[in-house]
Amino acid sequence: MTPTDKGRTERDIGYVKGSCFEGRGLTTIEEARAWLVRWRRDVALVRVHGTTRRRPVDLFDEERAALRPLPADAYEVTSFSRHKVRKDCHVHVLSNYYSVPHSFVGTTVTVRTSEQRIDVHANGERVASHERLRGRGASRTDISHYPPTKRLATHEIHRRRVELVRAAGPRTIEYLGRLREGPWVFGDQVARLDRLVTTFGPEALERACARALHFGALDGAVRVESILERGLQDLPLEPLPVIANTPRRDFGRSLVEYDALLVVDRRAS
Predict the structure, then answer these.
(1) Contact 189, 196 (CB under 8 A)
(2) What percent of the chain has pLDDT over 70?
(3) For residue 142, which phi and psi values (nearest 5 degrees)?
(4) Which of 74, 105, 121, 213 has the fewest C-beta atoms under 10 angstroms from its C-beta?
(5) Cβ burial, residue 63 (10 Å; 0-12/13-18/19+)
(6) Closest of 142, 179, 135, 141 to residue 161, by C-alpha
(7) Is the pLDDT of residue 108 over 90?
(8) CA-closest candidate to residue 221, choices 196, 203, 249
(9) pLDDT over 90 (residue 114)
């Protein structure tokens, strides 16, 4: 419809008001409805229309065959907008987030927003569809939209990390058990040991855990990391001194070992 069509369309309202109701003295809605039915049948549909030069009743009979029944579903009002796919595989639409296949990260897609659905289109095809969220800051995520390496659940990632760390050896398994009993967040400790396996290798981690256990250095994975960074895992483990009638103290060390530490420090500097 163009601006010039608007007046022509609304002209029918003025025609009904002036020709049907004006000066009729109708006092109730029932009288108005009854008069409207008669006026439509006897006046409006049988007059010669000023534009078509045809009677509306005759023209409607010709057009009747082309009419189709209304759809069963109510007409849904929609809007379209353009959005860039974020690095986390989501688009930000009306203050909420909806996932899109990872292959579209960095591209601009078309989003169709309706009362119930959010549909994402790219290259002429629908690539994602979500139930529309209400409120602000919520997310709808289809896990299949992530790259395969990002589809693991948190508990599965933790399980794999534990398996990798335990594979380093029995002393590492023992140290891992001590960490579970400690005050730390166990998942964070496992993640740290997992990085150490990747960086230094399982053999080095096993020797570092053995050293930490030997000296009772049970203050978290950070201690094992310190041993590996300083290369102390390769130093020999000498028996700890035991003083008669005195309980063994885990932090006791031989003086020979301090000499070895000084040698390592000089090499590092």
Answers:
(1) no
(2) 86
(3) -95, 115
(4) 74
(5) exposed
(6) 179
(7) yes
(8) 196
(9) yes
175 secondary structure, DSSP code: H
As a whole number, mean pLDDT of residues 211-228 equals: 90
199's tokens: 């960086």
The overall pTM is greater than 0.85: no
Residue 91: CB atoms within 10 Å: 23
Tokens matching residue 59:
């023209």
Q: Please determine, for residue 62, whether its predicted confidence score (pLDDT) is greater than 60.
A: yes
Residue extents of the structural domains in the chain: 3-66, 79-147, 154-268
- 3-state SS, 67-130, equals CCCCCCCCCCCCEEEEEECCCCCEEEECCEEEECCHHHCCCEEEEEECCCEEEEEECCEEEEEE
- Res 244 pLDDT > 80: no
Q: Rg of the chain over CA atoms, in angstroms?
A: 40
pLDDT in tens, 65-77: 889 988 888 888 8
Computed from CA positions of residues 236, 242, 248, 252, in that sequence, does the dihedral angle turn out positive or negative?
Answer: negative
In 129-220, which residue ranges form alpha helices assigned H by DSSP? Answer: 154-166, 170-181, 186-200, 202-214
Closest CA to 213 of 186, 255, 176: 176
Angle between helices 170-181 and 202-214 (to 10 degrees): 60
Which one, of 123, 84, 114, 76, lies nearest residue 100 by Cα?
84
